[in-house]
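Supplementary Methods. Inverse-folding protocol.

Structures were first reduced to a discrete structure-token string of length 238. This string, shown here, constituted the complete conditioning input.
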């Protein structure tokens, strides 16, 4: 599964703007930034493209609620910058574009909730494992570092769980998606990766995630094939 990382900044370059689409109204921000469209409300998890003109210097794109959408790396050309917003949760938030000259503009964003029912899943925070197993014979000298995250769900809802994955939102600005949830019995056989017993009547699942950064706080969000409510199931720190 591809790892999706939200972009926070892009450097403006001197090339012609290409591929600017859409005919939605535009809005002017402080000191002349103009966004087209002025606001976004994509349907059914469809990505939305935004073009901002009038920028000068280094550009930063941020979103107020990172549980709702991912933002692609910004593409700059001359005094314009463009980026794509991909919904991952239902709700409303604001996307802010600013440059190093003090210009800024706020773009309202609204994303629909579109995937009922959502299984009840809880994070077993004490079972977050950052394992560094010994390499297999002939695999080289560098150990493989990975993350194993365990969750629990009522047995009655267990059939829904494998169609979901976990999205991690780091305090360092990173966001990425783990592998689809699978039965805890299939977790990697590494030191410390043995799951603790789930609450009575619950089934336990795990998700393998990319390497995590030490000293970082992570919020864990349930993620499906389409947009979802911003269902943050727990948090932990490395």
């Amino acid at each position: 599964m591809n790892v999706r990382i939200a972009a926070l900044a892009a450097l403006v370059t001197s090339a012609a703007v290409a591929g600017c689409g859409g005919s939605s109204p535009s809005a002017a921000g402080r000191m002349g930034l103009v966004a087209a469209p002025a606001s976004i409300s994509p349907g059914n998890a469809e990505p939305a493209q935004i073009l901002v003109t009038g920028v000068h210097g280094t550009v930063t794109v941020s979103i107020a609620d990172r549980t709702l959408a991912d933002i692609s790396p910004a593409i700059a050309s001359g005094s314009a910058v463009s980026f794509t917003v991909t919904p991952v949760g239902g709700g409303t938030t604001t996307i802010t574009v600013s440059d190093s000259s003090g210009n800024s503009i706020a773009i309202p964003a609204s994303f629909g909730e579109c995937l009922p029912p959502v299984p009840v899943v809880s994070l077993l925070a004490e079972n977050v494992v950052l394992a560094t197993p010994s390499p297999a014979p002939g695999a080289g000298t560098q150990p493989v570092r990975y993350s194993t995250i365990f969750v629990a769900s009522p047995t009655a809802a267990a059939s829904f769980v494998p169609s979901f994955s976990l999205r991690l939102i780091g305090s360092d600005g990173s966001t990425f998606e783990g592998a689809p949830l699978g039965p805890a019995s299939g977790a990697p056989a590494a030191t410390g990766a043995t799951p603790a017993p789930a609450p009575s009547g619950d089934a336990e699942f795990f998700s393998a995630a990319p390497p995590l950064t030490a000293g970082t706080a992570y919020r864990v969000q349930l993620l499906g094939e389409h947009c979802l409510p911003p269902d943050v199931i727990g948090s932990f720190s490395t």
